[in-house]
Amino acid sequence: MTLCNPKVTLGLEAELAAMDDRDEVEDLLKRERRRQDRERLGSLVMVLGLVAGGVVLALGRSGLLAGETSDALLVAAAGVSIMAAITTLAFRPGKEARQLEALIGRRDRMQRGRNDLIYALSIAAWGMLAGGLAPLIRIAQGRGDGSDVFFVGTLPLLASLILMSVGGWTVFGNGRARQNRKWLEDEFTQATRSRAMALGFPLLTMAMGAVFLLGLYKAEWAVLAMPFGLIGAASVAGLRFAWLDRQAEAGKDG
Amino acid sequence: MGDPRLGSRLKELRTAAGLTQAELAERAGVSRKTINTVENGVFVPSTLLALSLARALGTTVEGLFYLVE
């Protein structure tokens, strides 16, 4: 007779509806994570191709690599980057991503956006570093001009931007930073942030120590190594933050 | 972030209340992944969050969490 009780029946229906909802979200999350994995792998390979291209270009220009070898390696790196870019485009957010966005709350949507941006910045920083390698070498050799200095000057700014974003000192809010802070900041974000910074800060200290020691030996090498230390530490903190957040969505510890 | 000494009945009580993780997250003013990590024992909530979760589910903190002997 209890099944005829409207309150019980209504409770059961609500529970079943909630279960359907949960299943749908979990299924969508699984598929979305698979898509993101492929998209991220594509972007990682693309950046690695760009970094390799930058290194080959720098080595070729400085005469450390023969012209033909340099050209062949450059073409290979460009090919890999283009293929990876196509893969990234093929796995860009689609209908499922939009469906998932509609199902989860505003707080999760905004935090996801912030974390994706930190992840993208952390990866893009290596691309910028690859592009800055040739200007860096020119500056270290005393042949750099104003544009080289300007380009290279953006590298420490980028590293700071990543660290500030992970540290919560910069809020990406499309001009609504103060209003958005309440959606972006919660207890779990703070815990994730401290774990990411706890890795990034010692790395930065160690990298700067190594740069200093290198500078005592050869000052121009320290100039070349400095952006690697800055970008390296910042991107590790950024990637750790994004990875911990992603693990949390899957319910695993990082 | 987790602590094996903390036991949780959050998932049990949430499903009994017919709430999704996202719905409970909205009520408690946190993200869905916060609920997910508390349920899975990877994140130990603060007293404030524990109180918010208890209020959102109409129970007490002791009803939600217990010490594992």
List the helices and strands and how they pair.
The complex is a heterodimer of chains A (254) and B (69).
Chain A: H1 6-61, H2 67-90, H3 95-103, H4 106-140, H5 146-167, H6 177-184, H7 187-217, H8 219-250
Chain B: E1 6-8, H1 10-16, H2 21-28, H3 32-39, H4 47-57, H5 61-64, E2 65-67
Antiparallel strand pairs in B: 1-2
What would you note in describing this structure?
The complex is a heterodimer of chains A (254) and B (69). Chain A has 254 residues and is mostly helical. Chain A has two domains: 1-104; 106-254. Helices cover 85% and strands 0% of the residues of chain A. Chain A has eight helices and no strands. The radius of gyration of chain A is 23 Å and the shape is globular. Chain A starts with 5 loop residues before the first helix and ends with a helix. By secondary structure, chain B is mainly alpha-helical. Chain B has one domain (6-67): Orthogonal Bundle (434 Repressor (Amino-terminal Domain)). Helix content of chain B is 55%, strand content 9%. Chain B has helices at 10-16, 21-28, 32-39, 47-57, 61-64, and strands spanning 6-8, 65-67. In chain B, strands 1-2 form a two-stranded antiparallel sheet. In chain B, helix 2 packs across helix 3. Chain B is globular, with a radius of gyration of 11 Å. Chain B starts with 5 loop residues before the first strand and ends with a strand. The relative contact order of chain B is 0.27. The model of chain B has no long low-confidence stretch (mean pLDDT 89). Chains A and B meet through helix 1, helix 4, helix 7 and helix 8 of A and helix 2 and helix 3 of B.
